[in-house]
Structures are given as C-alpha cells and as structure tokens.
Amino acid sequence: MVRRTALAAAAAMALLVGVHGAQAAGPEIVEGPGYLPECFAPWDADTKFMKWEAKEGPYRIALVNGFVGNTWRIQMIQTAKVYAESPGIKEKIKEFKIVSTGTDAAAQLGAIEDFINQGFDAIVTIAVSPEGFDRVIRLADRNGVVIVPFDNTLDTDKVMQVNEDQYQMGKMSGEFLVKEMGKTSGKILEVRGVPGNSVDRDRHQGLRDALEAAGDFEVVEIVGNWDTGTSQKATADALAVHGRFDGIFTQGGSDGTVRALMDAGHPFVPIAGEGENGFRKQIAQHAKDGLKGLSYGQSPGLAAISIKAAIAALEGNTMPQMISVPIPVADYTNLKDGENYWSDLTDNFFTPNEFPPCDVNIKAVDIMAKTAENVE
Questions:
Q1: Where are the beta strands (DSSP E) in the chain?
Q2: What distance in Å separates the CA atoms of residue 339 and residue 343, rounded to the nearest whole number?
Q3: Measured distance CA(166)–CA(151) in Å, rounded
C-alpha cells in the first residue's frame, strides 16, 4: 500500500512537472547575433535574442488586423497579400488567412486564440491595445506558435515584434516644426491617431518632449484616426474654433489636414505628417508658397517584413525580440517625382514600400490590384 502510494505520488509529481514545462514553453533566450541582421536589426544594444524550435514547412500563417477604416490599413492588407504570393515566399506558405476584427480588443484576442487552436504556425498582428495579450501569448507558447505584433506593438518582451521607432517619429516632427517656425512659442495643432494604440501614444509623447525641450508651446489636440476624411473634418473644426496655428503635426490623413487648411484660407505653415503620396504631392506643389513639410513613413510594408520574420523564426533562426525598421523620411527640400512620391498615382497611396536589405520590393501596381477583403 505504501509502495503504491509512493508510485502514485511520483506519477503526480511527474505530471505536475510536465504541465509546468508545457506552460514554460516558447522561444529560448539565446546569444546573438541574429539572422539576417541587415534586415532584422535589433532595436538597441539591450535587445535580447529568441530562438524557436524549427518546424518543417510549408506553414499556415494568419494576419489578425484590428481597425481597418483607413487607407494605410487597406494598403497594409493588400501588401501582405502580394508578399504572401511572391516568389520565394509562396512556396513556404501552405495557407494564408486574413481577418480584421475592428477596435474591440476581446474580438482580436478571440481571433488569435482561434487561429492557435486551428493549428496555425504563426500569427502576425496589429494590436488593438498594447496590453492584455498575456493569455494568448502563453497559449501560443504552449502550442509552438510564433506571434509577431507589428506597427501597434505590445508592452511586453515575450514575443518577437517589428516596428519603426514611433517615439522618434514624434520627436523628429516636433524638432522640425520648431526649426521651421523659427521661434520658441506658438500654437501647434496635433492631429492624433486611433486612441488607445501604442503608435498614437508614442508619437504623441515624442512630439511633446521635443516641444517642451524647445520652448513654451500651446498644443491643441484633435483625433483624426489616421484617416484622410476624419482628419480633414477634425482640422476644419479646429480651425473654426481656434483660429490660426503656427505649426501642425498630423499622424495620418495628412493630405486631409492640408485640404482643410486650404479650404479655410489659412496661410501655409510648417507641417509634419505621414508618408501619403497625396501629402507629398501637396508639399512639392506648395513648398514655394510656405508649405514646408516633413513626411515620415510608417510603411504598410511592415506587414511583409513581419511575415518574413515569422517564417525565419519558424525555420529555427535566431531573431531579435524587437526588430527595428529604419524610418523613411523626406521633406520639402528633397522630394523627387518618381523617386519618393508619384504624381501619377492616387493620393491615398503610402509611398514607402521597398526595403532592399530585406529583399522586400513591392510594386505599387501589384498592391493596387489587391482588395482589402479578408482571406477566409
């Protein structure tokens, strides 16, 4: 009886250890350098490196988007579709699905959990919120699934993430405005993005830190949702209420902000905004009239780099936990038609979509041929 009890206790302990081991599964923290560093550059000197157990391909990959109500998100989905079908990549993908869940975090988490339970190998996602993903990360780790947040990333170091430095975008924009305004006080219009996202939060903080370091500025905040129409209306309302501004920072829908300025008869002022083709066309046309613009680029091509990173991780390569993609920037002094903007393309096309170090070179005509519909 004692013998059986001891055996039972040992079996229970073994089961407990097995469960604990399963819960602790996931990527191993390893020494760098990482795979293809010219593409997958570590965020900084403190970035750790991860390595997943290699899986045999081809792979099942899902893109779980959140908000889809602006041109950037539409182009991002179109870009992902083109990349998943490109030579050298399509052979590595057995199944590729896309779903957009809206701004509800619970719906996005539910979609990610569903793909994990279906046996998908990797999930790339634009997070609705920077928090609340702990449970699905643990589930992914237990099932050997690679999750890759990009653009709107998570406040965690438990997954591999891909992004451009959002804080630096806000900071460089604030510094540009101060330089071009040529003064240390004045009224700034800040057109923010979708509330609750890490991108909006970090760009906002970068802008504010730059302005506070330079002088005493009054900042009027409005919400443009990174959308041209929304930004144009919100800017028009702000101009009607607050009158004249000395400079403008707009996170997206930048061409809408400029249209509102022109419709109101407001003099052109320095503007820092996104990489929309329409915004760059406006700068090129009106720079001589005072529209001194800076156009940074948060590229929809991040979706392609994230898919490439997911595949590299599934193949067992060592990867940085946080991957830094360089910020493409142009301003009124160096815009060139056919090089960093295109007068013959639509306004709502985001210009930065080529990353030669990553062998990601996606043509505008191919992107525009795709739809933003989900891939079921």
A1: 28-30, 41-42, 49-51, 59-65, 93-100, 122-125, 146-149, 161-163, 185-192, 216-223, 247-250, 271-273, 293-296, 318-320, 322-324, 329-331, 354-355, 360-361
A2: 10
A3: 9
pLDDT, one tens digit per residue, over 243-289 is 999 999 999 899 999 999 999 999 999 999 999 999 999 999 999 99
Q: What DSSP state is assigned to residue 267?
A: P
Nearest-CA neighbor of 123 among 144, 102, 103, 142?
144
A 10 A CB-CB count for 216 gives 9
How do residues 172-195 score in pLDDT, each as one tens digit? 999 999 999 999 999 999 999 989
What pLDDT score was predicted for residue 375?
66
Query: In angstroms, rounded to a whole number, what is the distance separating the alpha carbons of residues 172 and 49?
Result: 28
Please check the confidence at residue 137 and state whether its pLDDT lies above 70. yes
């997943």: which residue's tokens? Answer: 52
Predicted TM-score (pTM) of the model is 0.78
Instruction: Fill in the amino acid letter for 8.
Output: A
Radius of gyration of the chain from its Cα atoms, rounded to whole angstroms: 23
Residue 304 is encoded by which pair of tokens?
């392609």
Interval 13-23: pLDDT, tens = 444 434 333 44
Three-class secondary structure of residue 212 per DSSP: helix
Contact 225, 70 (CB under 8 A): yes
